[in-house]
């Protein structure tokens, strides 16, 4: 039954509204919200099962015609392995961050609007992953953005309003630009449906294809803005610091990936269909990707360098993580840049799969790190390095979680992050048969970025977790506080306080995510198989078009 | 004989399992956890011995990531067994020794768990035969040594040392990984299928080498893999992390320097030697150029640095780097003596270096200082220790008849033959080898001399070490004596030690292995002469040791030291970060918007240019007069907003623009839009006025040059929009989807009492909103509802901080 | 039904409107920034409507009536929702401006960015 | 007066809203008319210009007009007969129920077809012929969705207006 496609979105939507309606009773509201989070995970799992499993197969594409109107006229939701992969990891991170939120956000805020906004953010993310219609994508972007705006400044304060102002204005510009691009695409091609768009571009007889490159370039900047790529990264550090920890976890873990997903879906599945001679001073080709390959490479390089260099010298753990996020998104984009210009289909698939695996790993690790940082702030009152130190002794479990998160981003095996790095390197190495210079450049960038990653995470670890306890740590954690499980508590005594339950719960969430990073590393085969299926689906334009428009015809028969 | 899979798995994973159990064990056993850990290592040692005695040779493989072609595979051969032997054997001694050394120290559960994981990782490195499996264990050794070096977490020296080792070895590891991937890529070119299996790569060494050479990747692959080995084995200029690593507890240093971590690098060089070095390899191929030079340079530089050391552990640390250089250089030479020297010296170095570190630990622990200047005459208080130290030091110095002499002699032989056959500058090889060895002699003798002579007045009471600390180095000392005896007696290849080294030799040489044996030189060969020169010059220089020490220290300042570069790079990076970021992320929306909009402009215009879009020809105004007039007023309104002298004036002119847009919608036959626009515009006006009421009259005076820059960007954006509108209005796609919507929105002429296949409404726009694209509307009303929530939250959540 | 004829006047008008909006977004006064955003969003809406063609009948049909030569109803539906969303975001931006002023005591972008002059 | 002082001064509804008799009278006449128009726009939206969005913004506009002319307090206590809720704010609670309910209605109207085997948000039309007074009578399920849209937008806009107004 194709309802499985829309199920995650409906679960999130109903949960959002249910939390709005049940706001008078905090206990009920929390229960509804958590239940919704679990339901979302279940729906995502179901979707994953119907679309991707069994592992190793090519997967399926299931189309859902919202309102019963056939594609391309109505809006369709399309669940292929790519979408299911994205929804799947969004559901993991979002449940973790939600459970953390319940323990973290103050009761008044939860009652007022937090849960509703949180689930609407999930709705927006899910809609963006599933939709097969570019204007509908715009709508879900708006849903996602509106909730993120307000979640960023959920706790008012000078830093927060200032950060939100920049975030909001840049994204409002982005929305206007996106509308412009979508209008332009509709005017040139006469359709809003992605599959139809791909088909019309591939056909080329009924539409003017040449303007599409410029329009898709405009659109690209919107996705780069969402993903926080240089030179659209400006909003990232302040907004990430301002947002409550679980929201930052979602922003960095999931919302950013919507930009990445959109790039994969629209540029590799849809726009790549256009047969269009492209000539630039150094590159030429017959696909829009010939243009976007170098663009993505430049953006990825700039992001890796700026984010990496930026992170090394920050004075605050949150800020360091925010810059790291810029750098890591560069890593996510890098294999796409290689894939865009690669001649061999195997390298293209590998590149897209590398992007997806890296995105997955970053979602897991970065949300974990932001949550850990949030717990540090809640326990100690600050995340400034000059106030921290000695946390490895005072909060060993939390420290272990943080270390695993940092190591997975550094790429230490057998954590899942290692395989992300491995695939990025492999993609670049695979490009040797095409362009040795390009491959060499990509490898050099990736290696430089990897070294920077080690530099800033070792710094964070040394300054926050090792060393003598800083003033704030000494004041708030005088003894040893071990979190959920006591390990080797041979010294000091656990501090007990009213916050203990909440803190313990938060640390548990961090630990669970860390163990997931270990688990997905050791069981990487499953992750890789699904990422490969997703990459194949992303690159199979014809399959996508057939699935969407073909089944539309079949359905028209039923309805008519 | 094929190795038993269970045994191989047990060897590698037993330490990890024990590490996981350590916290629980510690609760029961307390400090006696040391013996639990030592027992674990002993079991591994026993299993390795069993494998070795059974003559195991072959592969054990399990599927891990089949879709990537990666498996959890192990390969048992001489080299693997040697390293596994050393790691587990020295491990037993180190863990036992720790029981005494770590007495009363905090964090022991973590210490033993990490040390066991370290042991397991090293065993994994030794035995792994899949490149990815190898890399996994490789990085785990880096990670566990990071944690061990930083064991005293609150010491800033520990933090510095741990970060340094992590930065250098993990980065090096990543370079090596890229090198591995090049090998895998080449295997894909050379073989039917690309492979991660080391065994397959080694079996097809010639084909792989050819593929690499053909694509010009031989040197890159060699250099990348070499970087991994060099960083791990502390080769110049990456040797700098090793002396700092002495911040770790001494047993860790002993382990790290003798049998684990640094041995991983030389292991890799040995392991890949037959891959890069064919039997008919040129004397001065890429391999030799890279590794012989790197190794000899390290051997010499590190030996000189050891002489400059003021701390016994620092001296030993540089000495380790120097001896690893010796091994790397040996493997670098493309002759059989090189392979023999490397294989034999791995064993010898482990035996004497582990002993010396444990001795250093006893000295530091019992005498309370590690300063060379404060130590002398220790023999009186530590007689057994002194004996061990003497034996081990003489072996390290390369003095016959101790085992260190024989492996060094083989290096001299290799260097001599290489020099002779290459000729000319090739003679630099033996010359440098002798030069470096002189310094080795000097610092080794210096170390031994600490136990002799007059007792230093500054030394307080020196305790006797406990048995747990004395027995392990004693065993190592006996091992040194045993190997020395075997070599000096000139026993044949079939004796256990020689047979064992012979197996190792087989692993690191291309072609068929042959038996291994050494014997005491009985005639004056050139290389025996080299040894003699080394010892004579060393002995002659020893009286001037302090002057040499001071002189080297005087020379080693600033950029001459690799540390200067490391610290400069790390601090420079940090300073760059601190300096540049505030000017990039300067908090000014103006900067952010400028970059973002300029990028959009560049992307868009670049896109149009790259696709060769041509602007349409002018075909008339294509617009009715009323629309033209309305648009004109709208533009005038917008201009007025830009130059509005006050907020109120601006809001009012903004409304003019809004209402003009509404009229435009009427003229464009969009009645719904016009109605909505009118009402919304009114609401916006009211809200604007309500909010403005609360805001101060700040308008920000316009700076001329800034305004000019902004105007340029504004014009660029305007031009982009102009081009976009022109290009897209000129396009006329066939059959836009709107046609279908218009046709199906209404009530069909013939219709059943209930239908879903048509909109059923006359207002097509509304039918689209509630039916065709009701899903969009669903999202839109969510946004509207969230706006309300947003404003509620903004106003009500004020004064509520995140951390309360 | 769709464009087909290049709209030079509209292109020029929209170009000017976007340029004016951009200029406002770069100003120091937060209120002007909000105006800039408003102008840009409005212009984007106008652009979309333009895509629907400027000549034709309003997209209203009777029962069983013909849908011939109406202006493109799709873009009108899109713009209708865009207008409502635009209202929401403008309101949000304004209230945010007010809160910024409350928190910082200024609506000067330079002072907000820590570059007080 | 600095911003902070401005912010802290007590809000004087009576003093601020010295409206004339004429404007009050006009409003009393105009507002019902606007509301009537709004409702008819909502109802006829499927066939003639109008619909949930437009009806809603017009309804909200009518209320805002009353706010402007009479002041918030008057509307809330006298027109809507509500008492300000606990934390001294406007009856935003009620508006929240309105937009919450509107969203719920819209989603429910979308979910209903799923029960009958149609896709989410599938809209149907019932035609009843030979109905007294009307020759033909048409009921579109889309109306319920539109009603949800209407309630959501009215609720949200009034929340915005009330929150901004009380500040």
UniProtKB/TrEMBL annotation, chain A:
GO cellular component: plasma membrane
Transmembrane segments: 34-55, 85-105, 112-131, 137-155, 167-187, 207-225, 258-276, 288-313, 320-342, 397-424, 436-457, 507-528
Subcellular location: Cell membrane
Chief place of localization: membrane
Keywords: Cell membrane, Lyase, Membrane, Transmembrane, Transmembrane helix
Domain (NADH:quinone oxidoreductase/Mrp antiporter transmembrane) ranges: 133-431
Membrane topology: Multi-pass membrane protein
Superkingdom of origin organism: Archaea
Recorded GO MF terms: lyase activity; NADH dehydrogenase (ubiquinone) activity
Record-linked Pfam families: Proton_antipo_M
GO BP terms in the entry: ATP synthesis coupled electron transport
Protein name per Swiss-Prot or TrEMBL: Formate hydrogenlyase subunit 3/multisubunit Na+/H+ antiporter subunit MnhD
Biological source species: Halogeometricum pallidum JCM 14848
TrEMBL record, chain B:
Alphabetically ordered keywords of this record: Antiport, Cell membrane, Ion transport, Membrane, Transmembrane, Transmembrane helix, Transport, Ubiquinone
Domain MrpA C-terminal/MbhE: 706-796
Membrane topology: Multi-pass membrane protein
Residue ranges crossing the lipid bilayer per the database entry: 6-26, 33-53, 73-97, 109-129, 166-191, 211-231, 289-308, 315-334, 346-364, 384-402, 422-445, 466-487, 527-545, 592-615, 621-641, 648-668, 674-692, 712-731, 777-795
GO cellular component: plasma membrane
GO BP, sorted A to Z: monoatomic ion transport
Gene3D superfamilies: NADH-ubiquinone/plastoquinone oxidoreductase chain 6, subunit NuoJ
Domain MrpA C-terminal/MbhD: 633-696
Gene Ontology MF annotations: antiporter activity
Main location: membrane
Chain ranges of the NADH:quinone oxidoreductase/Mrp antiporter transmembrane domain: 128-420
Domain NADH-Ubiquinone oxidoreductase (complex I) chain 5 N-terminal: 65-112
Subcellular locations according to the entry: Cell membrane
Protein name: NADH:ubiquinone oxidoreductase subunit 5 (Chain l)/multisubunit na+/h+ antiporter, mnha subunit
Species for this entry: Halogeometricum pallidum JCM 14848
Source organism phylogeny: Archaea, Methanobacteriati, Methanobacteriota, Stenosarchaea group, Halobacteria
UniProtKB/TrEMBL annotation, chain D:
Limits of the Na+/H+ antiporter MnhB subunit-related protein domain: 22-159
Main location: membrane
One cellular component term from this protein's GO annotations in UniProt: plasma membrane
Keywords assigned: Cell membrane, Membrane, Transmembrane, Transmembrane helix
Membrane topology classification: Multi-pass membrane protein
Subcellular localization(s) per the UniProt record: Cell membrane
Residue intervals passing through the bilayer: 21-41, 53-75, 96-121, 141-162
Domain of life of the native organism: Archaea
Pfam families: MnhB
Protein name: Multisubunit na+/h+ antiporter, mnhb subunit
Organism placement in taxonomy: Archaea, Methanobacteriati, Methanobacteriota, Stenosarchaea group, Halobacteria
């Amino acid at each position: 039954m194709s309802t499985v496609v829309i199920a995650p979105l409906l679960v999130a939507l109903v949960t959002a509204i249910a939390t709005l309606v049940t706001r008078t009773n905090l206990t009920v509201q929390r229960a509804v919200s958590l239940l919704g989070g679990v339901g979302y995970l279940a729906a995502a799992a179901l979707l994953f099962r119907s679309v991707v499993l069994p592992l190793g197969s090519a997967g399926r594409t299931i189309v859902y015609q919202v309102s019963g109107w056939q594609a391309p006229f109505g809006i369709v939701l399309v669940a292929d392995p790519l979408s299911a992969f994205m929804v799947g990891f969004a559901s993991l991170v979002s449940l973790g961050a939600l459970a953390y939120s319940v323990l973290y956000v103050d009761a008044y805020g939860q009652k007022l609007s937090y849960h509703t906004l949180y689930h609407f953010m999930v709705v927006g993310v899910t809609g963006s992953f599933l939709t097969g219609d570019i204007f509908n994508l715009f709508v879900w972007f708006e849903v996602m953005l509106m909730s993120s705006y307000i979640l960023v400044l959920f706790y008012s304060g000078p830093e927060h309003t200032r950060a939100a102002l920049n975030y909001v204005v840049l994204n409002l510009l982005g929305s206007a630009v996106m509308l412009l691009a979508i209008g332009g695409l509709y005017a040139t091609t006469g359709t809003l449906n992605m599959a139809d768009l791909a088909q019309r571009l591939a056909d080329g007889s009924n539409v003017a294809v040449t303007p599409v490159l410029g329009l898709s370039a405009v659109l690209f900047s919107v996705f780069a803005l969402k993903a926080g790529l240089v030179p659209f990264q400006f909003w990232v550090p302040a907004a990430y610091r301002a947002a409550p920890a679980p929201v930052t976890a979602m922003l960095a873990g999931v919302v950013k990936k919507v930009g990445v997903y959109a790039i994969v879906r629209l540029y590799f599945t849809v726009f790549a269909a256009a047969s269009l001679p492209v000539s630039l001073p150094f590159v030429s080709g017959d696909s829009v990707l010939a243009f976007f390959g170098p663009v993505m490479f430049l953006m990825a390089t700039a992001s890796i360098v700026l984010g990496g260099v930026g992170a090394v010298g920050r004075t605050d753990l949150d800020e360091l993580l925010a810059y790291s996020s810029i750098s890591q998104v560069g890593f996510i984009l890098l294999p796409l840049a290689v894939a865009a210009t690669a001649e061999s289909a195997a390298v293209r698939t590998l590149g897209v799969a590398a992007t997806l695996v890296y995105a997955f790993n970053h979602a897991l690790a970065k949300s974990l790190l932001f949550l850990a940082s949030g717990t540090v702030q809640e326990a100690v009152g600050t995340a400034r390095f000059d106030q921290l130190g000695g946390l490895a002794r005072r909060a060993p479990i939390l420290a272990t979680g943080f270390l695993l998160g940092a190591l997975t981003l550094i790429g230490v095996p057998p954590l899942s992050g290692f395989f992300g790095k491995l695939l990025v390197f492999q993609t670049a190495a695979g490009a040797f048969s095409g362009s040795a210079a390009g491959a060499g450049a990509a490898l050099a960038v990736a290696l430089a970025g990897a070294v920077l990653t080690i530099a800033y995470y070792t710094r964070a670890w040394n300054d926050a977790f090792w060393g003598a306890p800083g003033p704030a740590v000494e004041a708030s954690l005088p003894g040893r506080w071990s979190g959920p499980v006591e390990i080797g508590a041979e010294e000091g005594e656990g501090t007990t306080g009213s916050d203990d339950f909440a803190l313990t719960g938060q640390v548990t969430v961090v630990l669970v995510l860390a163990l997931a990073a270990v688990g997905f590393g050791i069981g990487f085969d499953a992750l890789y198989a699904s990422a490969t299926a997703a990459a194949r689906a992303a690159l199979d334009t014809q399959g996508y078009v057939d699935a969407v428009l073909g089944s539309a015809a079949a359905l028209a028969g039923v309805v008519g | 004989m094929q190795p038993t899979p269970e045994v191989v798995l047990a060897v590698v994973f037993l330490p990890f399992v024990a590490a996981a159990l350590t916290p629980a064990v510690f609760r029961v056993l307390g400090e006696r956890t040391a013996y639990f850990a030592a027992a674990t290592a002993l079991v591994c040692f026993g299993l390795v011995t069993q494998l070795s005695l059974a003559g195991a040779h072959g592969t054990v493989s399990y599927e891990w990531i089949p879709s990537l072609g990666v498996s959890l595979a192990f390969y048992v051969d001489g080299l693997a067994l040697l390293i596994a032997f050393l790691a587990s054997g020295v491990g037993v001694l180190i863990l036992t020794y720790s029981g005494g050394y770590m007495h009363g120290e905090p964090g022991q559960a973590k210490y033993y768990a990490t040390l066991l994981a370290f042991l397991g990782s090293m065993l994994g490195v030794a035995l792994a035969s899949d490149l990815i499996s190898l890399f996994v264990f490789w990085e785990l050794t880096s990670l566990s040594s990071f944690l061990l070096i930083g064991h005293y977490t609150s010491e800033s020296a520990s933090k510095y040392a741990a970060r340094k080792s992590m930065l250098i070895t993990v980065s090096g590891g990543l370079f090596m990984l890229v090198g591995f991937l090049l090998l895998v890529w080449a295997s894909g070119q050379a073989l039917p299928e690309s492979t991660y299996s080391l065994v397959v790569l080694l079996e097809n060494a010639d084909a792989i080498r050819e593929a690499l050479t053909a694509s010009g990747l031989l040197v890159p692959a060699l250099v990348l893999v070499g970087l991994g080995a060099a960083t791990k084995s502390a080769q110049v200029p990456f040797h700098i992390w090793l002396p700092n690593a002495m911040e770790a507890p001494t047993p860790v240093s002993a382990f790290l320097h003798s049998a684990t971590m640094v041995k991983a690098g030389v292991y890799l060089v040995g392991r890949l030697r037959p891959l890069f070095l064919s039997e008919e390899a040129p004397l001065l191929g890429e391999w030799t150029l890279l590794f012989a030079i790197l190794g000899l340079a390290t051997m010499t530089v590190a030996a000189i640095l050891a002489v400059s050391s003021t701390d016994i552990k620092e001296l030993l640390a540089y000495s380790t780097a120097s001896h690893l250089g010796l091994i790397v250089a040996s493997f670098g030479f493309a002759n059989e003596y090189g392979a023999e020297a490397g294989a034999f010296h791995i064993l010898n170095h482990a035996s004497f270096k582990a002993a010396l570190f444990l001795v250093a630990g006893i000295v530091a622990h019992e005498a309370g200082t590690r300063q060379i200047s404060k130590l002398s005459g220790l023999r009186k208080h530590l007689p057994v220790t002194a004996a061990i130290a003497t034996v081990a030091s003489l072996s390290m110095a390369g003095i016959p008849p101790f085992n260190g002499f024989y492996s060094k002699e083989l290096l001299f032989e290799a260097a001599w033959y290489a020099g002779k056959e290459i000729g000319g500058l090739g003679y630099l090889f033996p010359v440098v080898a002798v030069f470096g060895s002189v310094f080795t002699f000097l610092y080794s003798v210096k170390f031994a001399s600490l136990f002799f002579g007059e007792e230093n007045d500054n030394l307080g009471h020196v305790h006797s070490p406990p048995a747990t600390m004395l027995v392990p180095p004693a065993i190592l000392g006996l091992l040194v004596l045993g190997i020395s005896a075997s070599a000096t007696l000139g026993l044949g290849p079939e004796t256990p030690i020689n047979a064992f080294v012979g197996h190792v030799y087989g692993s690191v040489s291309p072609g068929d292995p042959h038996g291994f044996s050494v014997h005491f030189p009985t005639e004056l060969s050139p290389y025996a002469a080299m040894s003699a020169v080394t010892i004579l010059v060393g002995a002659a220089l020893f009286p001037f040791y302090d002057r040499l020490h001071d002189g080297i220290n005087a020379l080693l300042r600033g950029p001459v030291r690799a540390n200067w570069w490391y610290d400069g790079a790390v601090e420079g990076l940090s300073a760059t970060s601190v300096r540049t970021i505030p000017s990039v992320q300067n908090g000014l929306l103006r900067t952010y918007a400028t970059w973002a909009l300029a990028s959009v402009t560049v992307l868009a215009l670049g896109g149009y240019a790259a696709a060769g879009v041509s602007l349409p020809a002018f075909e008339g105004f294509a617009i009715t007069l009323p629309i033209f007039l309305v648009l004109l007023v709208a533009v005038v309104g917008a201009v007025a907003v830009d130059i509005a002298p006050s907020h109120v004036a601006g809001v009012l002119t903004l409304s003019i623009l809004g209402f003009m847009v509404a009229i435009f919608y009427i003229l464009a036959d969009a009645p719904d839009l016009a109605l909505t626009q009118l009402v919304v515009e009114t609401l916006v006006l009211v809200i604007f006025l309500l909010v403005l009421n609360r805001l101060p009259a700040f308008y920000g005076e316009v700076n001329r040059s800034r305004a000019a820059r902004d105007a340029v960007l504004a014009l660029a954006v305007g031009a982009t929009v102009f081009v976009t509108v022109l290009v897209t209005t000129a396009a006329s796609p066939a059959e836009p989807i709107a046609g279908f919507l218009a046709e199906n929105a209404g009530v069909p002429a013939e219709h059943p009492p209930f239908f879903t296949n048509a909109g059923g409404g006359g207002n097509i726009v509304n039918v689209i909103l509630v039916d065709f694209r009701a899903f969009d509307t669903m999202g839109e009303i969510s946004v509207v509802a969230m706006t309300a929530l947003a404003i509620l939250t903004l106003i009500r959540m004020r004064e509520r901080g995140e951390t309360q | 039904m769709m464009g087909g004829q290049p709209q030079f006047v509209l292109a020029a008008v929209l170009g000017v409107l976007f340029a004016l909006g951009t200029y406002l977004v770069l100003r120091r006064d937060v209120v002007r920034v909000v105006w800039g955003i408003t102008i840009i969003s409005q212009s984007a809406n106008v652009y979309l409507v333009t895509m629907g063609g400027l000549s034709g009948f309003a997209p209203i049909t009777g029962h069983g009536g013909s849908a011939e030569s109406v202006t493109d109803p799709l873009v009108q539906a899109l713009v209708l929702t865009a207008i409502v969303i635009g209202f929401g975001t403008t309101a949000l931006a304004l209230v945010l401006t007010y809160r910024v002023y409350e928190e910082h005591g200024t609506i000067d972008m330079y002072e907000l960015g820590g570059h007080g002059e | 007066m600095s911003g902070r002082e401005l912010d802290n001064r007590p809000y004087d509804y009576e003093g601020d809203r010295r409206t004339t008799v004429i404007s009050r009278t006009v409003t009393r006449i105009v507002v019902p008319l606007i509301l009537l128009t709004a409702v008819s726009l909502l109802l006829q939206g499927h066939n003639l210009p109008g619909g949930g969005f437009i009806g809603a913004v017009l309804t909200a506009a009518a209320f805002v007009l009353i706010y402007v002319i009479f002041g918030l307090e008057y509307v809330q206590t006298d027109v809507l007969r509500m008492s300000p809720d606990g934390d001294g704010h406007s009856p935003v609670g009620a508006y929240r129920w309105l937009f919450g309910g509107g969203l719920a209605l819209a989603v429910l109207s979308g979910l209903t077809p799923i029960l009958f085997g149609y896709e989410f948000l599938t809209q149907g039309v019932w035609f009843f012929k030979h109905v007294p007074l009307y020759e033909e009578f048409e009921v579109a399920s889309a109306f319920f969705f539109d009603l949800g849209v209407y309630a959501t937008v009215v609720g949200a806009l009034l929340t915005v207006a009330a929150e901004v107004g009380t500040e």
